[in-house]
C-alpha cells in the first residue's frame, strides 16, 4: 500500500479509475497518495502490460514478443489474470474467439478453452 493508487490498477486492461471504484465497492480502500519511493524508473515495470506468447511452442515467425492488432498473430492475454498470453495461432483460436484463459486459471469443467 506504500504505492497508494499510483500502481493499483486492473492487471488485465491497466485501467485505474474504474478498477479503484470497483475495489471500493468491494471494501478495498486504497490511499490516495503518490508512492513513497522517489525513483520511478525503478518501478516502470509495474505499468508494463504482459507482451509475449507463453504457449509451449510459439509458431510466430516474428518470435514470442511479436504481436499484431488482428489476425493469427494477435496476442490475447488471459482473461482472468493477464499474466500469460498467447498468439491466436499458437493456441488454435479462431478469429471469433474474444477471450482466452491460461492453464493456471482454467478450471476443469468450466468450458473455458485452454491453450
Compact overview of the structure:
It comes from Corythaixoides concolor (Grey go-away-bird). With 115 residues, the chain is largely without helices or strands.
Walk me through the structure.
- This protein has 115 residues and is low in regular secondary structure.
- It has two domains: 44 residues, no CATH class; 66 residues, Herpes Virus-1 (2-Layer Sandwich).
- Helix content is 8%, strand content 5%.
- The protein is built from one helix and two strands; from the N terminus they run αββ.
- A two-stranded antiparallel ribbon has the order 1-2.
- β1 and β2 form a beta hairpin.
- It is globular, with a radius of gyration of 17 Å.
- The model has no long low-confidence stretch (mean pLDDT 81).
What's the Cα radius of gyration? 17 Å
CATH class placement of the largest domain: Alpha Beta
Can you summarize the main beta sheet?
2 strands, antiparallel
Q: Poorly predicted ranges (pLDDT <50, ≥5 residues)? A: none
CATH architecture of the largest domain: 2-Layer Sandwich
Widest sheet: strand ordering? 1-2
Helical content band: under 10%
**DSSP E strands, number:** 2
CATH superfamily of the largest domain: Zinc/RING finger domain, C3HC4 (zinc finger)
How far the N terminus sits from the C terminus, by CA atoms, comes to 34 Å
General form:
globular
What fold name goes in the CATH topology slot of the largest domain?
A: Herpes Virus-1
Strand content: 5-15%
Number of helices: 1
- What structural class do helix, strand and pairing data support? little secondary structure
Order of helices and strands: HEE
How many structural domains does the protein architecture include? 2
- State mean pLDDT (0 to 100 scale): 81
